[in-house]
Structure formats: structure tokens, C-alpha cells
Amino acid sequence: MHMRQLAAKFLRRTHFPPQRFSSSSEITTSNAWPNSLSSKTKCSYKYGFGGPSWRMNSMDCYLWTILAGQAAIILGINANPVLADEPRESSSQNDLDTDSMFGFRKIEDGSVISNEHTAKWRLFSDKGREVFLQGKLDQAEKFFFSALQEAKEGFGEKDPHVASSCNNLAELFRVQKQFDKAEPLYWEAIKILEESFGPEDIRVGAALHNLGQFYLMQRKLDEADKCYERAVKIKRRVLGLNHTDYADTLYHLGMVLYLLGKEKDAEALIQESIKILEENGMGDSITCIRRLQFLSQMYLKSNRLAEAEDVQRKVLQIMELSKGWNSMDTVIVAERLALTLQSIEKIKETKELLERCLEARKSLLPEDHIQIAANLLHIARVAMLNSNRLRKINISEAIAELDKAKDLLHSSTRFALFYGKVLAQTVLI
């Protein structure tokens, strides 16, 4: 069955045409709710950059990288945070260094500044976002509290501006892992938005997505499932089946289902979210690449190596076209594919790909870099596998391959020892 049909079957949705808004509550994807933090994720790692692994890392680690990556931006690891101006997938365009982190969403609500409270609310909200992205969390907390107070005094206790301020504070507390403070603020924001715009409004959907992220980060999977399910219903009805923001929530719901052990349903939703991006001309985007990589890891973990290979080839093709081989991102993607090919005993292609990775690394990294040592080790392993295969065919060739493996291992060990010595000296200093 087609993945879109599977997704539709799982969600048991009836498609409604996109909602039309009255002039008083007109909303586009750029004004979901006023001056709120983004509900999207942006990730500080580059396609999983950080070195290859022989076996797939646990999905727990992968998920934590995706959801906890925001701390990297806030602590200043990323020098170029991206401000999101619309509720789209966190990792849509130009966010290689910010893929799966929450950013800030600055959204104009169309209201007229009518008194000193509303003016101060905007000032405190904007300043809070600014210092938040600079990693000054204590200052951000003060500004967000001030904004909340001004929103209540200037607009009233149940106004959407109050919901926005509640969400900003909730996001801040989530980053600080003060979960007990964050949760009631998320719920307060949702309650206000429901009372202001109705339970099926897109702003409620965005707030539910945020809350789903909050629960997913804590591994409260049942709660996250409920939030994402409801957010998907709202976004599907309001935005339609081919909207990237709908695809974002669909993807995160798929992640939750995967962690709940519902692999078939998860695969359908993640496949559908990827297809939506491709249909929107985002098939070569960082967002799509990241989702494809998650899908390939799902396949690897369930030992569906041929399907993992197909997905990894697709990712490598995208990387070759967009970045070429003069990029460590392409090298890492290629090496992952090589290790998958090795698992299914495509020895010749594995060797060729690893040698190309080694050539690229030597041109991009210092000659004594530890990644070069690791690359040599992978090639040595392939040589030993090939030697073992040749023993029954041609013993002289098998011995030659074994000799190559020994030389490679010697070089790899030499690099590793040198690197370890340098590292030890650094620690002592």
C-alpha cells in the first residue's frame, strides 16, 4: 500500500478543505500567534557529523541529539542561530548548523499599540528573544516575566498575547530543564488560545506541537502522542495535506510511534513527511536529509539493510550535488553508506567508497587527524574481509590482501597513538 494511504489509514482522518479565516482573525503561516518562540527544531550538528560508527548508535542518542540540540545554540556553540519567522519545519532552509532546535518565532499579530503596557510587552518580548539567543538565560527569564506581566495588564489575563508570553517562558524553562515550571505554562497558553480562537485553530495546533516536543524530550511518549495526534488533526484540516508545517508534526508523531514500538505506522508517517517536502521542492533541504537519515537508521536497526542502502544512496546523491566532495558532510554520509555496503558484503564498492572518503579527508584535515586513522581502520577491515573471501579462491591474492590490511592497521595505529599523545599533553597543560 502507498505510504500516503498508510498514513491516512493510520490517522483515520477525513480531509477538510483549508480553513478560511475572517478578517478579524486572518492567519497565515507567518502569524500563528504573537511574538512566540518557535515550535520548530533546529540542530547544531551537520548531518550527524562527529565521526562514523560501525554500528548504528542507539535511537535514544539520536533522538536526544535532535531534541536537545537547542542547548547548543543557546550556549553559544552555534555562532549563527537562525530566527524563524514562520511555523515551518525547524530545519527547513539554511539551517545546517541549527537543525533540530527550537528557535524563536517573531510574529506580528496586527494589533495596535494602544498604551504603555502593550509597548512594553513588545519591547520585553523582543529583548527576551535577543538575549535568549545570546545564551543569557537569566536575563531572558527576567524579560519574559516582564513581558508576561505587561501582557496581562495591557491585554487582559486571557488574551493571546498572554499565551505567547506563557509559551516563551515555557520554552525557556524547558531549555533549563525546569520541567515542573514549563508544563503549566504550556497548558495555560493552550487554554487561552482555545478560548480565544477555538479548539481547532492553527495557533492551538502550533502550541500543541510545542507541548508534544516538551513531552517527547522527557520520554513521556503517551502524552507526546496525544499532543501530536491532535496537532496533526488541526494542521491537516487547516493547512491541508501538502503543507510543510503539517509534515513537521507528522514526522514528530512518527518518531513517537517508533519509540512506542509501532514501527509500521511510524514508517508510514515519516515517509509521508518526506514526500511532502519533496513535493514542495525541498527534497534537497537539510530538513529532508535529516528525515531520510532517521529513516535509514530505522531500517538499519531492524536489519532492513537493502532499504537502508537505498535511502543512504539518495542522501549521498543530494550531498554530492549540493556540496561536492570538498565537504566533510559529504564524507560522513558516504562513509555511512560504505559501512552499510560492507554489512551486505558489497566489498568492492565499499573499498572504493572508503578510499574516496580517505582521499577527501586527507585534503580537508591535518595529516595526523584521528578521523584519517579511523578511515584507515575501516579500509583495513574491508581488506581482511576480502582476504577471508579469497582464501577459497586464490590463496596468493588472499595473502596480498592480508598484507595490505596489516599495513593499513599499522598506519592507523600510528595516527591514533600520535593523536593520543597530543591529547594527553593537552590535558596535562
UniProtKB/TrEMBL annotation:
<dbReference type="Pfam" id="PF13374">
    <property type="entry name" value="TPR_10"/>
</dbReference>
<protein>
    <recommendedName>
        <fullName>Kinesin light chain</fullName>
    </recommendedName>
</protein>
<keyword id="KW-0802">TPR repeat</keyword>
<feature type="repeat" description="TPR">
    <location>
        <begin position="205"/>
        <end position="238"/>
    </location>
</feature>
<dbReference type="InterPro" id="IPR011990">
    <property type="entry name" value="TPR-like_helical_dom_sf"/>
</dbReference>
<dbReference type="InterPro" id="IPR019734">
    <property type="entry name" value="TPR_rpt"/>
</dbReference>
<dbReference type="Pfam" id="PF13424">
    <property type="entry name" value="TPR_12"/>
</dbReference>
